[in-house]
Amino acid sequence: MNQDLSSIGDVSRKIGIARHKIEYAIVNGSILEPKIRIANKRAFNESEVNTIAKYFGKTIEVGNTDEGVQNEATL
């Protein structure tokens, strides 16, 4: 099984939310910790990235993860 994993910095860039806001949401329990850790660093799979984006009211377009983020309100 080959899985694309993203660090918290990658997730931050993909969805356009500051890293510290994502970390705060994880620490206070609003977002679950990722299932995988590599070298004691959080590693998010695609499903977890989508969950984080949804929590912050963002969507990620399939096939364009770098700039494919939009506010749900603008869709």
Commentary on this structure:
By secondary structure, this protein is an alpha+beta fold. Helix content is 36%, strand content 16%. The strands form 2 sheets. It has a two-stranded antiparallel ribbon with strand order 1-2. The chain starts with 7 loop residues before the first helix and ends with a strand.
List keywords for this structure.
two-stranded antiparallel sheet; 16% strand; 3 helices; 36% helix; 4 strands; alpha+beta; 75 residues
Quick structural gist:
With 75 residues, the chain is an alpha+beta fold. It is 36% helix and 16% strand. Strands 1-2 form a two-stranded antiparallel sheet. Strands 3-4 form a two-stranded antiparallel sheet.
Question: Helix and strand layout, with pairings?
Answer:
Elements: H1 8-15, H2 19-27, E1 36-38, E2 41-43, H3 46-55, E3 58-60, E4 69-71
Antiparallel strand pairs: 1-2, 3-4
